[in-house]
Amino acid sequence: MLTLLFRGVIIYVIIFLIFRLMGKRQLGQLQPFEFIVTLIIADLATIPMSEINVPLLHGVVPLITIALIHFLIGLLSRKSIKLRQIFNGKPIIVVSPNGVEYEALRQLNMDFNDLTEALREMNIFSFDEVQYAIIETNGQLTVLPNASNAPLTATDFKIKKEESALPIMLICDGRKIKKNMQIAKIDDNSLLKQIKKAGAFKIKDIMIATVDNNGKMYVQAKNKKYVTFNIKHFKGGENW
Fold first, then answer.
1. Is the CB of residue 92 less than 8 Å from the CB of residue 99?
2. What angle separates helix 32-50 from helix 2-22, to the nearest 10 degrees?
3. Is 168-239 in the same CATH topology as 90-149?
4. pTM score, whole prediction
C-alpha cells in the first residue's frame, strides 16, 4: 500500500512539473504535437502506478524522454518558421470575400455543417456577415466580420467605412518572411526604413511586423512599445 502511495506521489510531482513547463495553454489551445504529448504522458503515467512489478524508473524515464522531445520541438519551432509550420501547421482561410472556400474545407476534412455550427457559436448566422474566417493551427475558428456587421457598425451611424483589411506578417521573431514581403511589394531596404520608426535598426531586433492591404503597418521591437503607421505610396495591397 505504501509502495503505491509513494509511486503515486512521485509520478504526480513529475507530471505536475512537466505540465508547468509546457505552459498554461488550455486543452482547446494545444497544438497537434502538444496534444499527442499530453495523451502519451497520461498513458505512460498509469503504468508505474498500477503495475507494482514494473520498476518505477521504467515509468519515469519515458516520461522525461517525452518531455524532452516536447521541449526540443518547441525550441526548434521558435527558431525556424518552416519547422513551426511542419509541427503546428498553418492557419487556413475557410471563408473569404468570395465566399466559402470549398477546397480549404476538404483539406481540413470539414463540411458546411461543421463551419456553420462554429459560426453560430460566435453568434454569426449568415456567411455574408463574414469578411474572413480562419481555422487556426489549434483548430479554433476566428472571424473578421464585414465592416457593416462589426460592433458599433458604420451602418448604424450612416458613415461610410472601408472594408476590414487582413494583415500579413512581414517579420516574425526577428526573421523576414520573404514570401509575404513579395506579396506586399516591400523590399529589404524599404523594410529596414519602416522598422526604424519603431526604434530598431536590424531585423533581428523586431518581434513582429505586419502590414494590411491599406498600407497600415504594425511594428514592435523587442522590449519596446509597438508603433503603428501608414506606409506612404503603398502599392502592395492589390495583391491580397
1. no
2. 170
3. yes
4. 0.60
| Highest mean pLDDT, choosing among 27-36, 147-156, 157-166, 227-236 | 227-236
Assess contact for 88 and 32: CB atoms under 8 A: yes
pLDDT in tens, 166-199: 789 999 989 999 999 999 999 999 999 999 998 8
CA distance readout (Å), 124 to 12, 26, 96, 191: 43, 24, 15, 38
Over residues 207-230, the pLDDT tens digits come to 999 999 889 999 999 888 899 999
SS3 category, 190: helix
Q: Per the structure block, which three cell numbers stand in for 95?
A: 471563408
Q: Does domain 90-149 have CATH number 3.30.240.20?
A: yes
Listed residue (43, 86, 50, 47) closest to 66, CA to CA: 43
Q: Is 117 strand, coil or helix?
A: helix
CATH homologous superfamily of domain 168-239?
bsu07140 like domains (3.30.240.20)
Type and span of the H or E element at 182: helix 178-183
Sheet hosting strand 206-211, strand order edge to edge:
175-176, 168-172, 206-211, 216-221, 227-230
Q: What is the DSSP string of 29-87?
A: G--HHHHHHHHHHHHHHHHHHH-TTS-HHHHHHHHHHHHHHHHHHHHHHHH-HHHHHHH
Which backbone phi and psi does 88 adopt, to 5 degrees? -100, -20
Q: Single out the residue of 205, 197, 202, 211 nearest to residue 239, CA to CA.
A: 211
Length of the chain: 240
Domain ranges for the chain: 2-87, 90-149, 168-239
